What we know:
Layout: E1 2-4, H1 5-16, E2 25-30, E3 37-39, E4 50-55, E5 60-62, H2 70-75, H3 91-104, H4 110-121, H5 140-154, H6 159-163, E6 165-168, E7 171-174, H7 186-196, E8 203-208, H8 214-222, E9 226-232, H9 235-247, E10 254-258, E11 280-285, H10 300-303, H11 319-331, E12 332-341, H12 346-356, E13 361-368, E14 374-381
Parallel strand pairs: 8-9, 8-11, 9-10, 11-12
Antiparallel strand pairs: 1-5, 2-3, 2-4, 6-7, 12-14, 13-14
Amino acid sequence: MALHLSRAVRRVAHFSGISGSRCFAAVASFSVNNNLLKTLFYNQRHENSDTVFFYTTKRNFSVLTNKKNVPRKYCRGFSSPATGIDTNSNVQCVLEAVHKILEDAEIPEAETCSRYLVSQVLGSTKQFAYKEHLQQKLDNAQVEELNRLVACRLARMPVQYLAGNWDFREITLQVRPPVFIPRPETEQLVDIVLDHLPSKTSQRLLEVGPGTGNICLSLLHENPDIQVTALERSKMAADLTKENAKHLNLDQRLEVIEIKVEANTTLPPNSDQTPQPVQYDALVSNPPYVLRKDLISLAPEIYVYEDLRALDGGAEGLDVILNILRLALKYVKPDGLIFLEVDPCHPHILPLHLEKQALPFKIDKVLKDFQDKERFLILSRSS
């Protein structure tokens, strides 16, 4: 199924408010329940759809379907660039050629990307795997695949999606569009949680928005005394978290519930049929916290391909955060801690919102990320 680019750009411009000249992106919103496909940039009326973002060529684009072979599927609509790569080129020359193509196109981190792409056609998702094959020549199938991957990267598809998996702390996770890609700074959030939990004591944690499962699965992997219940609104993300948990043999200590956290969210009954709801020892979340005005400033790798529901925090970036705190009132023990990744403005504006909405929480600590930005909050119940 294909739609003409000009019509798609007009619709994208209409929904997003971006001028046509800047509308390089098109969006297919795929409703899992009824296979309804619509071209939308970001339309909140489709709350129950799993949204797939993809870049367009100058002519047409193809609507994407829900399969797992990411490189072929997501690059099918892209014409291969004139790379000059053939079966007479060894890996060292191929690497230099790909690097130049990406650099000339002003692709971010061109050198790193070229390493990943070349390593991938050689059968590895590790950045430096190509070094073991520097004098090897690519066969026809490898050249064709490399051209496809380069075309995808020129279309600003994240290298994580092209690789199909990504390392996060001590684990390797499957990643695929449009599920939110784990960020390096979020590794610090895991450290913060582990540092503040009692050692050698059984802990039940609640996570909101696991995405790929990077936070909860890292916690489970690094602390055998933890059990986690993860709440995820997106079916695709919930399924991916479960898949990663099973692959890492951590699924026995993880429960994933497909649910949207809103102001009055009630969790389903306990599996053990006890009358009282579970009270968790702590809550952790990397929620949607980007201020809506900042969404348009995001890199194409983000706003074209990733699910914006995992980013859009509303006008002040606090819509989901405040709902998480309302949920914590019901399901986190009175002495439990709340660990959040936030926008740097939030440590300064959140206290006023807590006071206005009578939410009995206080900020205990504000911690900076590796870029020296105020990125993490630890909250507790106010006395």
